[in-house]
Design a protein that fits this description.
This protein has a domain of 51 residues. The protein is built from three helices and two strands, in the order αββαα. Strands 1-2 form a two-stranded antiparallel ribbon.
């Protein structure tokens, strides 16, 4: 996709309403390396959500105390 095609990109969160500001390609905060189109308002909201997430899960490699692998037969890590 050329740079000009991104000028008409729609905010990923536009279905939620409340879009405001410029829609730009923003870095994925999940580590995928993908660029995600978000408006200024939804980008700020995503940054705030990420900040709260890091407070709850500061080290993603270590499960929180409440995690019980027997509860649903799930693992915290992807290693088998």
């Amino acid at each position: 996709m050329s740079e000009n095609e991104w000028e008409d990109a729609e905010c990923l969160d536009s279905h939620k309403g409340g879009c405001a500001g410029e829609v730009l390609l923003r870095p994925s905060l999940t580590g995928t390396g993908l660029a995600i189109a978000r408006c200024d308002a939804h980008w700020q909201a995503r940054l705030e959500w990420q900040e709260e997430h890091v407070k709850v899960y500061p080290d993603s490699s270590t499960p929180p105390d409440w995690f019980d692998p027997a509860a649903a037969g799930e693992r915290w890590d992807d290693e088998y």
